[in-house]
Design goal:
This protein has 295 residues and is of the alpha+beta class. It is 54% helix and 17% strand.
């Protein structure tokens, strides 16, 4: 009997080993690394997914490559264009009206305006005009009929690369957010460990909001182009700004006359003492000559 048991023992051992090696491991979520349970000493030794390892750029390696392969729609046209121009006009009021009408025809608007029309100041204004990016060239061309275009400068900033990078970061953060939410809903552990996961989730959501805000900023500034126009009337050749030319001439003549009188009065302080000395010397010489003649 004992010999029969020994005969069946090796096959049973082999079968047990095969069964053990064929037992499926615990399921793992794709892209996650599993670590020991939060307590590390629990009898169940439950396994909890750890936070994915992030690259220095803030994007998971595989996710970043996937995002860079597919460019987001419209990323090729992410260009911010701004310009500055100076225009001399005959009438400031008419020029401001013409600029508002031009912006309205192009589907834009006047964002900011600073006007100087005080006494003794050059009548001028700084106008900021915003129009759709597709009508920017028409706006620059429309300045010529308003007045004499003195100068213009256009600056272009391509933000397509930044748009792609921020989009990839945001998508990766959203995936991490979903994983952390699943972790909170499906796993249990110590209160401290749960709070740590919630803090990580709050940080991820803060990053998502920051990325969304940056994307909104890029979309808004690429959709509308900005032109800052300095408009001014001609500077008078003679006289100060805002005054009559002949009136300024008469005022200057009167100032010159008053200045001459002031200088003459000041010179009396020197001329009078010199005159007294000269007169005293002359009378002394005349008296000396009279004495010599009588002798």
């Amino acid at each position: 009997m004992k010999h029969r048991i020994l005969l069946f023992l090796p096959p049973l051992v082999v079968a047990a080993c095969v069964a053990t090696s064929s037992t499926p491991n615990e399921p793992q979520q794709q892209g996650l690394h599993y670590t020991e349970g939060w307590d590390g000493l629990s009898a169940s030794r439950s396994r909890v997914p750890a936070v994915p390892v992030m690259m220095e750029s803030g994007v998971e390696a595989g996710a970043a490559n996937d995002q860079l392969r597919v460019m987001p729609p419209g990323a090729a046209n992410m260009v911010i264009r701004t310009a500055a121009a100076s225009v001399q006009v005959d009438s400031l009021d008419l020029a401001l009206t013409a600029l508002r009408q031009l912006a309205g025809r192009l589907g834009g608007f006047v964002a900011n305006a600073a006007i100087q029309t005080g006494e003794g100041e050059l009548r001028s204004a700084n106008i900021e005009v915003k129009v759709p990016a597709t009508r920017f060239d028409e706006l620059m061309t429309g300045l010529k009929p308003i007045g004499e275009l003195e100068s213009s400068k256009v600056h272009t900033d391509d933000v397509g690369e930044e748009y792609v990078d921020v989009t990839a970061r945001m998508d990766n953060s959203r995936r991490l957010e979903r994983r952390l939410i699943d972790l909170l809903t499906t796993r249990t552990g110590k209160l401290k460990d749960v709070l740590d996961v919630e803090q990580s989730l709050a940080r991820v959501r803060e990053e998502i909001e920051r990325y969304e805000g940056r994307l909104r900023y890029l979309r808004a500034h690429t959709a509308m182009s900005t032109l800052t126009v300095y408009v001014h009337e001609p500077v008078p050749i003679v006289g100060s700004v805002g005054a009559s030319v002949m009136g300024e001439a008469f005022k200057q003549a009167w100032r010159n006359f008053v200045t001459f009188l002031a200088l003459f009065v000041q010179s009396l302080g020197v001329l009078i003492p010199i005159g007294v000395l000269v007169a005293a010397g002359w009378f002394g010489v005349q008296r000396w000559r009279g004495v010599t003649r009588t002798a």
